[in-house]
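S1.2 Input.
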Amino acid sequence: MEKYVPLLKNTKLFAGAGEEDIASMLSCLGARLREFGKGEYVLRQGERLGDILVLAEGSLLIQKDDYWGNRSILGNIGPGEIFGEAYVAPESGTLLNDVIAVEDSAVFFFDAKRVITTCPSACRFHTLVVQNLFYAISEKNRSLVRKLDSISRRTTREKLISYLSEEAKKQNSADITIPYNRQQLADYLAVDRSAMSGELCRMRDEGLLKFEKNRFRLL
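S1.3 Output.
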């Protein structure tokens, strides 16, 4: 577990804390480390969760399948990101989505009660962790608003323009890399993959963008 302390230093939850402080807090926060292979479920619909999770390395997808197997992708999780916090309140109920490893990944599980409650030893960085958690939740809410703005557009083109524009702003560049392949992007935007691919080709032919796999240049 200690080998991930340098990685944790760069996560949102531990921003501002030193490596020695993080190492001492792992026990205080009830930390457990689990590793998942590509394609494995980190969390499943219907489970109850009492932990706040942090992705130490790898990549995860948040997705949901309906009764007939139709898939919706709600988002991706990159290294350093916090997830699961929406389900740790007593009345939150069971998980509504699956979280799946896109590649080999390592995930920290932190006992939610220990995270939000100051420990008896009064770790001087514990308050900072709670503050970071609040900021991370606020950032997630903004991301959700951005997604709702994209998927609420009427046409596939409008959805693509909205999503790619937001990514360009977030990455501060007209050359962007998105975390989804074609099927995943279609599932994320709630559109048909063939229709989306056709629209991307038309946008390319009209000189609006260039693309190769998951890399785009907005023109």
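S1.4 Remarks. The CA atoms of residues 87 and 93 lie 7 Å apart.
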